[in-house]
Amino acid sequence: MRGNITRRGKGSWRLKFDLGTDPATGKRLTQYVTVRGTKKEAEAELNKRLNQIDEGTFVEKTATSVEEYARHWLKAIAPSKAAAKTLERYGEIVDQHIVPQIGRVALQKLDGARIDEFYAHLRINGRRDGKGGLAPQTVQHIHRLLSQILSSAVKARKVRQSPMQAVQTTPKVRREEIQVLDDAELVGLLKYLKGRSLYMPVMLAASTGMRRGEVLALRWKDIDLDRASLQVAQVVEQTKAGISLKEPKTDRSRRTIALPVRLVVELRRHRKEEAETRLKLGLGKSDHDLAFPTWDGQMRSPRPFSKEFAREAAAAGVAHVTFHGLRHTHITHLLRSGVPVHVVSARAGHANPSVTLNIYAHLLPGQQEGAAAVVDAALTAALQE
Fold this sequence. Notes:
- This protein folds into three domains: 3-55, no CATH class; 66-166, Tyrosine recombinase, N-terminal domain (DNA polymerase, domain 1); 183-363, Orthogonal Bundle (hpI Integrase, Chain A), CATH 1.10.443.
- The protein has a three-stranded antiparallel beta sheet with strand order 1-2-3, with helices on one face.
- The mean pLDDT is 88.
- The chain is elongated, with a radius of gyration of 29 Å.
- The protein is mainly α.
- It has helices spanning 39-55, 66-77, 84-102, 112-125, 136-155, 183-193, 199-208, 212-217, 261-280, 302-315, 323-336, 341-348, 353-360, 367-384; strands at 3-9, 12-21, 28-36, 223-224, 229-231, 235-239, 242-246, 256-258.
């Protein structure tokens, strides 16, 4: 037997059993556990633990706290899965919310009830300035991050199962209404921006559905004007460390987009005007070969760019839409025009068509009526026969 039982006192027993070999040192690992009850019950407990070891489900008792494992996850595991901006946000959530409220709780003692209390605090008093609770969306972000950390702890055999399974107040968020521009509003916005620095980035986003970071990172070498297409090959990212370029997050985000003829004409004009302007200013070619750089050829900063768009959109009379709303506008227009969802999904760089439908299906009025009309026509034809 790989373990034994020793009496410690009346109704008290010490279990000693073998955990195998430490891969780092090669030494045998032994676990000691004290249990209460009869000898028969102690034997049953020992057999249970030995079976768990054989099945790979045994979890060694540890005093590791939620904070300790969260910081281990941030340092050793998260960087392999998340971009710098996402990691920065993860760190803020851990520091500002998770650690202050449940950081000292032993990881193996964290249960659903304690997490429910945590979420209640976030909803009522979660703001750092003491002025009330956090927005439902923020609470959901915290929930998702905590879920990832606890799932990792299960894989690391720090806990047998995630306490998230016992949480009764999982945060839910109402779908925010997506703001899009109708044809007249888009035309009005483009007319207002004509001759301004935002004109071409806005036209590109509205014509292709590209994301802000993709638009700002676009290089002339990524654009094939003769074939009327472009490649999404990099993205601008802004963190506390500054602005940088990175590869698209997924293979689906790294994509080829066909360009409408009018956009190709405007891009040719823009490239010519940009070259003439740089020549007048005595500037050479942009270091990054960017299609929409600052006046001196540098990358545009995403946050100031969005603020500039907000000001210009308000001046144009369409303050209700953000720059990302141009992406929504493009995708919605394609779906309403009958472009197959798998084509729209590929153009948008979504993980799969179901993501596209999940986000935009509610913006397609009349689909139910159209389905009913198709069935009605079939029934009518069949009955006439």
